[in-house]
Design brief:
Strand order of the largest sheet: 1-2
Shape: elongated
Distance between the termini: 57 Å
Number of strands: 4
Structural class: mainly alpha
Order of helices and strands: EEHHEEHHH
Length: 134
């Protein structure tokens, strides 16, 4: 007899309808902050901030990006903007290093010329192609 395997284990429990405890706490904190601003600021300034802040609170609470709640992504967004970036790859400088300057012969005028490159002829290319075909 097969045993049922529990699914959706990491799903948060709902408190009221479709609202989880985390969403409820974000809504109450945001609403409490707007109420605090109502008593501190003038009505016109509070109305402007509330018109901007309330939709922002709703987006943070109920918004999702590719199925992930926005309040879980927000710390990573802030960290990406705030923390300086560290790059592992650096572009190499074009030019000669001191070791390679010794290998370059000087001409009669004192100017340095780069060493001549070997040119591939048809015979070498045929040998390489035969070797790779094996």
């Amino acid at each position: 007899m097969p045993v049922p395997v529990p699914q959706f284990i990491k799903e948060e429990t709902k408190i009221m309808g479709l609202v989880t405890l985390t969403q409820l706490s974000i809504l109450t904190a945001g609403g409490g902050f707007l109420i605090f601003l109502y008593f501190v600021l003038t009505f016109q300034l509070w109305a402007i901030l509330a018109l901007i802040g309330f939709p922002l609170i709703l987006v943070i609470t109920f918004g999702q990006v590719e199925g992930i709640p926005f309040f879980k992504i927000l710390p990573y967004v802030i960290r990406h903007i705030w923390v300086p970036k560290s790059y592992l790859w650096y572009k190499e400088k074009i030019g000669f290093s001191p070791a390679s300057e010794k290998e370059i012969p000087e001409t009669a005028k004192g100017q340095k010329t780069p060493p001549k490159k070997k040119e591939l002829d048809l015979r070498i290319l045929e040998e390489i192609s035969q070797y790779l075909d094996k």
